[in-house]
Design a protein that fits this description.
The chain has 398 residues and is an alpha/beta fold. It has helices at 10-41, 96-108, 112-123, 129-147, 203-215, 234-243, 253-261, 266-279, 285-301, 305-318, 331-334, 338-354, 360-375, 378-381, 390-397, and strands spanning 55-66, 69-79, 157-169, 172-184, 190-199, 223-226, 248-251, 356-357. Strands 3, 4, 5, 6, 7 and 8 form a 6-stranded mixed beta sheet that branches. The chain is elongated.
């Protein structure tokens, strides 16, 4: 390589720049602290003045973690006056932006131990898990206000589901669920309208969940989309019928197909899968029900009685999306619960890091924080459905 070409050690350059920035920030803050001390005492260091109000008595060292690194500050001590600094809050050991960055890491899915390690690596100072928990209490207060906020818009479509996690209950660890509801408002935008601990995802839990949303202003619901696998969510349908009399229930098509196929032996599964897809490819509800009856009859002829019975029992509530009151352009998105399933995967990804929770509130707050973090982008600002023809379809259907 020619000798006249300048070579730069990038790592060494960045290290020296970081050190230089830290040193300059330390000098600037120490100079500001000295200026504050001069103002309080009424005289500069070693200055003779008749208007002096206090005297300097040395200083004490204090460390402050900032984005520029770990700063070694010299805080003045005074005789005859109390030194109150506007530059550094009393007892503060970290810059506000550093604490916010660490909290954002935690809410984004980083465990408390990893937050501690990253803090040590980037700023040379650790943040213990207990300290992080104390800082999160303020965030949790804001999250709880968001969770219980009034619902001012109408939500023609509501998607509901539960995500399971482990928590301490009655002295032992067991699985409980967090119920989540996403509403599509009158402008076609998505919005998380309800999050609560659902205990066992039974009828009482669903009833309490919907009652809470109705008390907060939930209205205008025409379709509730959910998963009804086995008896676990059997209370959901009854709750929708009793508490939202104008709304209909749509069982998730994907979960329903999986439920039917779970009763089909592998040798028949490829045929059964194609047959079920043909049912939901129909353009009207009547044709879909007729096709489902044909498929069920063929299943019986192949000695697949359990699958045929499952198909006949559930196809009615799984084809609600084909009713005339729902626009054709909405059907592909309202026939499944995939939207809320993707959100649940993000929740599980975060709660899996924690493992078991000590109580229900800590689990609920972390789930809400994760939901707000994931949805604080174009997820909620981008229009999900064109609602311009929805009212016309309702008028025609009625």
């Amino acid at each position: 390589m020619p000798e006249n070409i300048i070579q730069i050690d990038q790592n060494l350059l960045e290290t020296r720049l970081d050190r230089l920035i830290t040193e300059k920030m330390t000098q600037i803050l120490n100079a500001m602290l000295d200026a504050e001390a001069d103002e309080i005492t009424g005289a500069a260091r070693y200055e003779r003045s008749g208007g002096r109000k206090a005297y300097r008595a040395g200083h004490y060292e204090r460390k402050l973690t900032a984005k520029a690194g770990r700063l070694e500050l010299k805080v003045p001590k005074l005789k005859g006056a109390l030194f109150e600094s506007a530059v550094i809050e009393r007892y503060r050991r970290r810059e506000q932006s550093v604490e916010e960055s660490l909290i954002d890491m935690y809410l984004a899915g980083v465990s408390t131990r990893q937050v501690d390690d990253i803090s040590q690596l980037l700023w040379g100072d650790r943040m213990p898990s207990q300290t992080l928990s104390d800082k999160l209490k303020r965030i949790y207060g804001e999250i709880d206000q968001w969770r219980t906020r009034p619902l001012e818009s109408e939500y023609p479509y509501v998607f509901v589901d539960g995500v399971w996690h482990k928590r301490s209950w009655g002295g032992h660890v067991e699985n409980v669920s967090v119920l989540v509801a996403i509403g599509i408002n009158a402008e076609g935008h998505r919005e998380v309208i309800g999050v609560t601990e659902g205990m066992r995802e039974d009828s009482a839990s669903w009833e309490q969940f919907f009652r809470g949303m109705i008390e907060r202003g939930l209205k205008g619901v025409r379709l509730v989309v959910g998963d009804r696998f086995g008896d676990r969510c059997a209370g959901l349908v009854a709750t929708v019928g009793s508490m939202l009399p104008k709304a209909k229930y749509q069982r998730c098509m994907v979960h329903f197909m999986r439920n039917v196929l779970s009763k089909v032996p592998p040798i028949h599964r490829e045929w059964a899968s194609a047959a079920l897809k043909a049912v939901f490819a129909m353009e009207s509800r009547e044709s879909a029900l007729d096709k489902a009856e044909q498929v069920a009859a063929e299943m019986r002829s192949r000695r697949l009685r359990a699958a045929a019975n499952c198909l006949r029992e559930g196809v009615g509530e799984t084809t609600t999306y084909l009713l005339d009151e729902f626009p054709d352009g909405h059907r592909r998105r309202i026939r499944t619960n995939n939207m809320i399933e993707r959100l649940n995967r993000e929740i599980r990804r975060r709660t899996r890091v924690v493992g078991g929770f000590p109580d229900g509130n800590s689990a609920l707050m972390l789930v809400c924080a994760r939901i707000r973090y994931v949805t604080a982008n174009e997820w909620s600002t981008r229009r999900y459905l064109d609602m311009s023809r929805f009212d016309d379809n309702l008028v025609e259907a009625n």
